[in-house]
Every structure is written in structure tokens, then in C-alpha cells.
Design a protein that fits this description.
Layout (H helix, E strand, L loop, with lengths): L1 H11 L7 H15 L7 E2 L2 E2 L5 H16 L1 H25 L8 H6 L19 H6 L14 H19 L2 H10 L1 H11 L11 H18 L20 E7 L3 E2 H7 L4 H7 L7 E2 L2 E7 L7 H16 L3 E3 L6 H7 L4 H8 L12 E3 L21
Antiparallel strand pairs: 1-2, 3-6, 4-5, 7-8
Helix pairs in contact: 3-10, 4-7, 7-8, 8-9, 8-10, 11-12, 11-13
Length: 377
């Protein structure tokens, strides 16, 4: 009786019903095929010792876990269309193995804003000190670890240096995950330089096997039940490059208007930008293709126009004022007041201080209230 009720319920909600045996068989087919190994197994041109049962077991674990998370694999596959062409080009230019591209999936699932609790950031999950060592800017205004193109150059230079140090790609990848000195200490203590025989932190012991599993899935997705057409893959980014010379702090909104686009598009094309203002200096930025022609002339006019109305937007703080009180007095969101003045909610204001108190004259806003516009980094 209970089983009949379940069958009726499934029919009523429009779900096709399969017997437990049929459902289990169909679900298990891609998982079973994931276990098949065609020898020899190679990674970065180096053989993987699959004659060792422990190596096979470690590989199978990562393969099954990856194939089992089907939604995540579909996103991996779709994102490869956007990011892999550029990675492949840089790998070829630097003379590095093509298999290294799968490291970007292992590290971040190809997400430019991916971050870790240890402080790693970006597609390649670079730590701040490593990023700076290889030429990236990491500070409160810019974090080039989030710039896919700049960080790819840095990460691959780092990997090249690791290979020169360790002489094998399995060890180089392990060092990328756990650090060079930590790996060298384990090699000295354990008396072996064979990655597959080293006892390392558990994450590092899985690291190379996860990359190998992802490689096999991405190379032949149909084998594991993923059937995507060419149109399903996300296309590479298309943009033009402009040079911005900022004499002082420059609102990102003016850069967006000069590029004939919106704030979000500029932030999406330049994920290394933090906050709402550019620091003084000269930088190269990505803008939509149609925004490059005449960009510098438009930006110069916008900066000049902004300067002319700046004084009209200023309020001098008086004794007894508070940020929330000023925001309420002028009917502007407190979050907007913080953005315009580059201050935090806990900052102390004092009499005589000048605050920008009204929105830009070319931006309309709701009559009152407004959503919290504070950017989440």
C-alpha cells in the first residue's frame, strides 16, 4: 500500500518513475566508466605508476568524486571555453606542458574571485607574497591575482621556477600546493623524491590525482555522460585595452562613462579593481570594444565637469554631527555617504571636515532610501 502511494505521488507531480534497479544502473554507468584506465597513464609527459594498487585507488577516489558532482563538472566544462584558449597560448609560449591548464580547475573551478581561508585568491589561487614576487600588485586598491591574464603569467612563471627546482611535474605541482620548503623538508626526512611514495599533507596527497582526474573528464566528457554542444561553452572575453592616467583619485563611474558602458561592466572586465575609486597613477584597463575610440577625450571632459560641480556637493561637518545624522539630514543612504567619502562606518568625523554630500549631478536616484551599495570584496 505504501509503495502504491509513492507511485501515485510520482505520477501526479509529473516525474517519470524508474524501478530501483534501472535507476541505479543508469546512474552508475558513468561512474563505472570513470574507473576504466587506458595505459599508459601520463601527466605533463610523465608516467603515472598505475601498476601500484594504491595509486589506482587514490586516482579512482578523485575520479568518482569529481564525476559525481555533475553540476560542478558542467560548469567546469562551460568555463573552459572562456579561459582555456588563453592559458593554452601562454603555456605554449613558455614551453610548459599543456596539462598544466587543468590546475586552474583544481585550484578555483576557473573562478576569478575564488578565495581561500589561507589568503589565496584568483583563478590560480596565488598567495599575496608569491603574487608580488612574480610581479603582481596586491594592495587595498588593486588585487591583480583576480586579473585572469596577469595572474596566468605570474602563476606559470612560478610553476616554471618550481620545475627548475624539483625536476618533475608531480613534485612541482605538490610544491605549488604546499610550498617549496615544506616539500623539500619532507623529501629530506623521508628519503625519497617520488611524489607517489611521499607521505604529505592529505590535501597535497590528493592534489595531483585530482588534476589527473579532471584532465580525463575534460578531455572526454561524453565518456562520463556530459554531452555539451559547441554553443554550450562560454565564449572568451572580448575587450579593448585603454590607458588611464589619474592625477588623483578617480571615480570608477567616470571611467565607465568614458568607456560608454556601466560601472558593473568595468568591474567585471577588471576584477582586480577594489572599491569605487582608482588611485593616482597610470594603469591599463579593459573596456568594451566599442568604448576605446575617443575614450581619453571623453574621460578628460568628464573629469573637468566633475571638478566644476565638486564644491556644490560639499558639506562642512559641524559640532554634534554624526554620519548617520548627516545622511538622514540630506536624505541620502548612509552607504552612499561612505562611498563618496572613502570612509568606513566606524571612522570618526570632526568639525570643519569636508564631506561629499550629494550624488553626481548626472546620476538619478530614488527619492528616498535605496539599497545597500557597499561592495562585497
Amino acid at each position: 500500500m505504501h509503495r502504491l502511494f509513492i507511485l501515485c505521488a510520482l505520477t501526479l507531480i509529473g516525474l517519470p518513475f524508474l524501478s530501483a534497479g534501472v535507476a541505479a544502473q543508469e546512474e552508475s554507468e558513468p561512474l563505472l566508466s570513470a574507473l576504466l584506465l587506458e595505459t599508459p597513464v601520463m601527466l605533463c609527459g610523465e608516467p603515472v605508476p598505475v601498476e601500484d594498487p594504491q595509486v589506482v585507488e587514490r586516482y579512482e577516489k578523485e575520479k568518482l568524486l569529481s564525476v559525481g558532482d555533475r553540476a560542478q563538472v558542467i560548469l567546469w566544462l562551460k568555463r573552459t571555453g572562456r579561459y582555456f584558449p588563453h592559458i593554452e597560448t601562454v603555456l605554449k609560449e613558455k614551453g610548459l606542458p599543456d596539462d598544466i591548464k587543468y590546475l586552474a580547475i583544481v585550484e578555483s573551478a576557473l573562478r576569478v574571485h575564488a578565495g581561500s581561508s589561507k589568503g589565496a585568491m584568483g583563478v590560480w589561487q596565488l598567495m599575496p607574497q608569491t603574487a608580488r614576487k612574480y610581479g603582481l600588485t596586491v594592495n587595498s586598491r588593486f588585487d591583480e591575482r583576480r586579473n585572469f591574464y596577469r595572474s596566468t603569467e605570474a602563476a606559470l612563471d612560478y610553476l616554471k621556477a618550481l620545475y627548475e627546482r624539483f625536476g618533475s611535474w608531480s613534485l612541482s605541482l605538490a610544491a605549488y600546493n604546499m610550498g617549496e620548503e615544506g616539500l623539500e623538508a619532507q623529501i629530506l626526512e623521508q628519503g625519497t623524491s617520488d611524489y607517489y611514495r611521499l607521505y604529505l599533507p592529505l590535501e597535497t596527497q590528493r592534489f595531483v590525482f585530482r588534476l589527473l582526474a579532471i584532465k580525463h573528464i575534460v578531455e572526454a566528457p561524453e565518456k562520463y555522460g556530459f554531452h555539451l554542444s559547441a554553443n554550450d561553452y562560454y565564449p572568451p572575453e572580448i575587450f579593448s585595452v585603454v590607458t588611464v592616467q589619474a592625477m588623483g583619485e578617480l571615480p570608477v563611474r567616470l571611467v565607465a562613462k568614458a568607456a560608454q558602458t556601466d560601472f558593473k561592466t568595468i568591474k567585471d572586465l577588471n576584477p582586480e579593481l577594489r572599491g569605487y575609486y582608482l588611485a593616482a597613477g597610470t594603469r591599463r584597463f579593459h573596456v568594451p570594444e566599442n568604448g576605446k575610440a575617443g575614450f581619453n577625450d571623453r574621460l578628460a571632459r568628464l573629469i573637468e565637469a566633475d571638478k566644476k560641480v565638486y564644491d556644490q556637493r560639499i558639506y562642512m561637518v559641524r559640532k554634534g554631527d554624526s554620519l548617520s545624522g548627516i545622511a538622514e539630514k540630506f536624505d541620502v543612504p548612509l552607504a552612499a555617504l561612505l562611498i563618496w567619502n572613502r570612509i568606513g562606518l566606524r571612522d570618526v568625523i570632526h568639525p570643519g571636515q569636508h564631506l561629499v554630500i550629494s550624488p553626481p549631478t548626472d546620476v538619478s536616484r530614488p527619492a528616498s532610501g535605496g539599497a545597500d551599495a557597499e561592495e562585497k570584496e
